[in-house]
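Protocol step 4 of 5: obtain the predicted structure for the target chain.
Materials: sequence only (see below). No template structures provided, no constraints applied. The aim of this step is simply to have a reference model before the mutagenesis design in step 5. Sequence pasted as it appears in the construct record:
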Amino acid sequence: MIDIRACTPDDAIAVSTLLGELGYTVSIRQATQHLRELGKTGADPIFLAVADGQVVGLLAAHLCRMLQYASPVVRVTALVIDRRARRRGVGKRLMERAEQIGSAAGCEFVELTSAMDRAEAHAFYHSIGYEPNSLRFRKSLVGQCPP
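Step 4 output (structure tokens):
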């Protein structure tokens, strides 16, 4: 059985470990700090999937208003499932939670981004009804001097 529960700063070790599976280096200290900060906003819910007492998945979301849409949007900012727990319905359960959050908040839709090289993730999102609709661009600001 998979339980979905709210994430707390006490879960920082699991969060750090899971984000590492996506290639993000987030120390336990950083994870604790981020979880505390995001927990205060009311707009950044984070959930964990737990099976047999072990954390096996993470979903972070952000509820936001955008100028161009009539209703708010829920954006999935992170979804990761422990390698050993994939293909067992964990990701689907977490995405269902994101959809529930969005529906309860009157959101128009759920959106997410996924790195171009994550073919398995893309296939998963497609299998649960998500379609690609845009291309994201970004530019690093690290090391740039302010104007």
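Step 4 remarks: The chain has one domain: 2-127. Helices lie at 12-21, 28-41, 90-104, 119-127.
Proceed to step 5.
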